[in-house]
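How it folds
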Amino acid sequence: MRDLGVLLDDELSMKQHISKVAASCFFQLRRLRQLRLLLGQQVTAQLVSALILSRLDYCNSVLAGLPAATLEPLQRVQNAAARLVLNLSFRDHIKPALAKLHWLPVKSRILYKLCLFMHHVHYKSAPQYLSDSVQSVATASCNRRAGLRSADTANYVKRCTRTKFGERAFSFAGPAAWNNLPKDLQHCSNTDVFKKRLKTFLFQRAFLTD
């Protein structure tokens, strides 16, 4: 079944969707590679952003919690795009290339989207259905949380789940991503500033830590 351009299989493994996105992106990369010498780095980067990165980011929150092996085709797409923009060979290491372009890896891009959704939830600018799917620690009634010190935090309750599959739901994945943010970032109410600081935080975690 296809919903908003996302291909949903009967097991919600998302493998068919990822395969289709990867195939579409590699098709565009092959076309761009034929023009790379004529376009130059700046124009190539702009086209890659419009034709490739936008596809990787579209509805990528549904990929939360998937194994690295499942996400690998999308990461290969991004790696190939980085090599194209910087005119690198397959022998060149990809991590410095992604860092030079300031591109978050695929897994970090998914976390970015989850945290952005949670930011909108926290500051009351999200759709109601999204807000209703999560509950803040401060308002949770279970275990008398309202009287605990933790009730003063900006964290959200991670819904109980017995399976890894359940951890892919936004009610778990959203709070899990948000709760791992620094407190000063959680308390940043300006969306534009939050997005810049969030990208910096995820970039440092992806490239500047062991």
